[in-house]
Amino acid sequence: MVTDIIFLILLILQGIIFLYLAFGTIYIFIFTIASLFPYRPKSPSTNIQNRIAVMIPGYKEDEVIVDVAKDALRQDYPQDLFDVIVIADSFKPETIDELKSLPIKVIEVQFDQSTKSKALNKAMLQLPDNYYNITVVLDADNMMAPDFLNLINASYNVGFMAIQGHRVAKNTNTNFAVLDAVSEEVNNSIFRKGHRCMGLSSSLIGSGMAFDYTFLKELMSTVKAVGGFDKEIELKMLKQGVRIEYLDKAFVYDEKVQKEEVFVKQRRRWLSAQIHYAGFFGDALKNFFSHGNIDYLDKAKQMLLPPRILLIGLLPIFTIISIFVNPLVFTIIWAGLLAMLIITFLFAIPRKFYNRKTLGAVLSIPKGIFLMFTSLATTRGANKKFIHTEHTTGETNSKFQVPNTK
Fold first, then answer.
1. In 3-state terms, the chain is what percent helix, strand and coil (to 5)?
2. Which string of b and e fits 140-164 if b means at least 16 CB within 10 Å?
3. How far is 116 from 139, CA to CA, in rounded Å?
4. I need a surface site. Which of 31, 149, 273, 327 has the fewest CB within 10 A?
């Protein structure tokens, strides 16, 4: 009798785990298949060149910020129609002096608890109203492709108030950097291109994104997020019915994590934000039934998805265990779900990553899985304090080549 009860409990527990992992796997599989189809953004009916504020908030980013600011000026866009604005939080005096020698705007800020949202809000309070049409938000290590502002401007002229560019790796010099770069492109396939191909909004990343300036200023004044501010504005935007565009050809180069300790800090921040914003699901479900807002519901649902690296770690383990403890039909179901996950990654990862360097990085996946579990165990309270990710790569855009994304 006791044995039967234990068996029943284990069977129910297995069913719950399977349903959760299946939810995550099927979701990313559907949007990965969608990403294989072409997505062509609409062409604007006007060629108006709007005034753009390129905002670069940075916290103690002395090592990279000068090169990034210089690079941001090298755009194929009229120089009198865009300003590079560095929001300098806790920079060294010599870095400030060097920045002020450039034809850019420097806004110095300092907070008891530094966040990107506070920096952006402070800067926009100091900038003139009704002067800029568009604002581009970059991280302190980001470098734009020369045509980035032109592509953003064209999409804005179509009527989009929120636009996400295609963020790609600036470096793949370590195994963790390669894994981070691959993860970024998988996200681009699933949560950006795949979503747009199915008529849904693109997901935001946190940088390489652009907005109607006035709209963002009003929206940011309501944001209190310490971590994951992009998720908060994304949820609020979608609730309002604002659609987010994705530009697959508008490239922004982003430094990928090079050390495992940085990997842990970054994933801890992301997981904490995901757990925090999972609380929006109830409101999104209510909004869907009352207003039919599928974009808002879809974004809130993403907050409930299991992290992909946990899918990679758990599905093979449960499939192997199933061989020894389950009837054949259950094992086939587990194996089928694992096969779906493998197919998802085969299609979502760009062809340029099918090389020896990636194969070598794959050997770091077990360590990455362990570190992800470590991150899960330490996410409590992480969304209530600022977690800074250090950047060290100060390369120039001229060294990069336009990537083959598929």
1. 55, 10, 30
2. bbbbbbebbbbbbbbbbbeebbbbb
3. 9
4. 327
Token pair of 266, please?
A: 């970054």
The single-letter code of the amino acid at 346 is L
Contact 286, 296 (CB under 8 A): no
Query: How far, in Å, CA of 217 to CA of 120, rounded?
Result: 9
Give the C-alpha separation, 239 to 283, whole Å: 9
Biggest CA-to-CA distance, the chain: 81
Label residue 381 exposed, middle or buried (CB < 10 Å: 0-12, 13-18, 19+).
exposed
How many alpha carbons lie under 13 Å from residue 95 in its C-beta half-sphere? 21
Which residue matches tokens 């980001």? 142
CB-CB contact of 17 with 299 (8 Å): no
DSSP one-letter code for 52: E
pTM of the full structure? 0.89
Q: Which residues pair with 343 in a beta bridge?
A: none
Q: Which residues pair with 105 in a beta bridge?
A: 85
pLDDT in the model for residue 11: 87
Distance between CA atoms of 214 and 216, rounded to whole angstroms? 5
**Cβ atoms of residues 288 and 300 within 8 Å:** no
Q: Other CB atoms closer than 10 Å to residue 319's CB: what's the count? A: 19
Domains plus CATH for the chain? 1-406 (3.90.550.10)
Placement of tokens 């179901």 in the chain: 333
Residues 353 and 111: their CA atoms lie apart, in Å, by 41
What is the Rg, in whole angstroms, of the alpha carbon atoms belonging to the chain?
Answer: 22
What pLDDT score does 360 carry?
Answer: 84
Per the document, the length of the chain is 406
Q: Which residues of the chain have pLDDT under 50?
A: 394-402, 404-406
